[in-house]
Design goal:
Blueprint (H helix, E strand, L loop, with lengths): L10 E5 L6 H9 L18 H13 L14 H4 L3 H16 L21 E5 L2 H10 L4 E6 L2 H7 L1 H7 L9 H15 L7 H6 L6 H6 L1 H23 L1 E4 L6 H15 L6 H18 L6 H13 L3 H17 L1
Parallel strand pairs: 1-2, 1-3, 3-4
Amino acid sequence: MFTDRSMESKVVILYYPPGAGGKFLTSCLSLASNCAFPDPMYVNTSLTSVEKFDIFMGRLDTVGATWNDFLIRPTKFYIGSDRNQNVYNLQAMQYLVDNPDLNPRDFVKLEPVDIGESTLLTLTHSIQHLSILCRIWPNAHVIYYTNVNKFVNRYRKQKISNSEIAPENYMTIFQTVQKNKRQYNDIAGADFPSFSKVLADKNNIPQEVKDEYPGLYNELLLMYYYVDFYKTMTESCLNFNTSCYFDKQETLEQIEKVYKHLQLENFDSAMIAQLYDKWIDTVRRLQNTTHGNRSFISDVSRAKELGDYVEAHYHLSRLQNQTSSS
């Protein structure tokens, strides 16, 4: 994407769990005059802030029975909008997740983007994918969502239940650790150290695990890597407190702070306030919507049409879980 490494500081990665309002913040930040529009269809065009705003407001008008994510698919910026490139990069990303010592730039084919000096926004729900993106762009800014459960439980509760069974590319560090804990406890003998001791020090992994459960042993080694990455990331990232979404004025103040931190230009509180009103009214309307199989199928189809197979995979997992539990 960027061959000039001096441009890495212009990359912003939003890291948040599904349903936490990440696409809303992405929309608000992209209104800045020096921020690229987060859509391959428009990224190489010079849209004004008003034109961007009109696009987002129009996309909110299209929301039916299910949330449409502002029709934003920033994952294409590193996954690729071409179908063959998309399939290859998905495989490459999974390989890199299991081999974090490798250089992602040797594997991932980045989408060429000509945005000059503008800031580029992309996002991920996965701690593993975040680590890959941070190795691709070591100087990128990371925005990390905190205190998400209250908002998600209030407005996007369906997302919480679905994220519990999310595929690997949607896992948080806490879900990753819990998965390893379950696997370890399933095979633990009476004389095995507790998982908390294993988590604290890899030297506490029993020799029997190394000899008889090589798959689990490798999973535990990967866990240490991603736990260490998470700790380092949280020391340098910009935290965004999702609790601000319950109050419009607080939301505006928090977003303005993000603008200043990222040196984004032309913060427009009036436009963002209008976008907030329409967005929060939409999620309120949808919060009690029951998602049947038809809506999940619609989500899969929409993601496929947009060429976003990461999103399509996620919605397909939701559909499979809904079918198996019915």
